[in-house]
Design brief:
The protein is 17% helix and 40% strand. It contains 5 helices and 18 strands. The protein has an 18-stranded mixed beta sheet that branches. The longest helix has 13 residues, at 73-85.
């Protein structure tokens, strides 16, 4: 089976071109083995690039634990790059079918290759029941920190200057946004999995800690549902942009610094979609023996 390794600012996936070969019979299981960074290709998960009857291509995304997710913004940019660069569709604007619906992407092309992609990520979902979360509010804005058993205690709250409140947004997948003064000091490997599986998030949650530099610039770190710590999360960056506007912390145009690189975000209005712009990179191709 032929595969392609690609990443969007370090958020890396193994991609399968299902236009030119059959889709794997059990993509969830394949994702767990191919994503292993010691015994597999190594990635945050698996993405299938499939034909679509309603768009230029369809994207299906599986986390490294085998669970299927609705959306991945960094993955979507890479799908668009592959579709254009490999001649599946040479349009400057593509429509990609996702678990979030059909999303439109505008391509920045240089030397006959896609360098950056601007994605219409859709209108944020703000109803608690649809995010979903049991926290109060539509959406919950600066909701109280949940009562979690934390072996680290609360000392780390002081170390990172935690604001112990949570704002929740869905970009087709669920996100919790938390602010702090020193994002590098958050013990993400401990706090992330506890928040991901907290009872207040019935379908689990993607967790983002955010440090504000100005109303138009932030740094964020992410614990992704089903994948753990990742270098970037596109839907998460969009959720951070929305949460910042809703809570009055940031403006509608935002530059987000993630461990793997930067994303440009814009949310023109409450009834408007979020736009995300960033790079997409093809790393290598190979053959998987199974």
């Amino acid at each position: 089976m032929r595969f392609i390794k690609m990443h969007g600012i370090g958020n890396d996936y193994v991609y399968i071109d299902c236009f030119h070969q059959p889709a794997p019979e059990n993509p969830g299981h394949l994702s767990t083995v191919i994503s292993d960074r010691h015994f597999g290709v190594g990635s945050d998960g698996l993405i299938l690039i499939e034909p679509s009857s309603v768009a230029d291509a369809r994207m299906r995304m599986f986390n490294s634990d085998g669970s299927e997710s609705e959306m991945c913004g960094n993955g979507l940019r890479c799908v668009a790059k592959y579709v254009y660069d490999h001649g599946i569709s040479r349009k400057p604007t593509l429509r990609i079918e996702t678990g979030r619906g059909i999303l439109s992407v505008d391509l920045e092309v240089a030397g006959d290759r896609v360098r950056r992609v601007r994605v219409n990520m859709g209108i944020p979902i703000l109803e608690s029941a649809k995010i979903p979360t049991t926290l109060p509010g539509d959406p919950p804005i600066d909701a109280p920190w949940p009562d979690l058993e934390d072996p680290l205690g609360t000392r780390w709250h002081e170390d990172c200057g935690l604001d112990p409140r949570i704002t929740c947004v869905s970009m087709g997948n669920p996100h919790a946004v938390i602010y702090c003064e020193r994002v590098s000091q958050v013990p993400l490997e401990s706090v992330g999995p506890r928040l991901e599986r907290a009872a207040i998030f019935p379908r689990r949650i993607n967790v983002h800690f955010v440090q504000i530099h100005s109303p138009t610039e932030v740094t964020m770190r992410t614990w992704e549902r089903g994948s753990g710590i990742t270098l970037a999360c596109g839907t998460g960056a969009c959720a951070v942009a929305v949460a910042g506007v809703l809570s009055g912390r940031t403006k509608r145009t935002l530059l987000a610094h993630l461990p793997g690189g930067d994303l440009e975000l814009e949310w023109p209005g409450h009834d408007q979609p979020v736009f995300m712009t960033g790079p997409a990179t093809e790393v290598f191709t190979g053959d998987w023996p199974d």
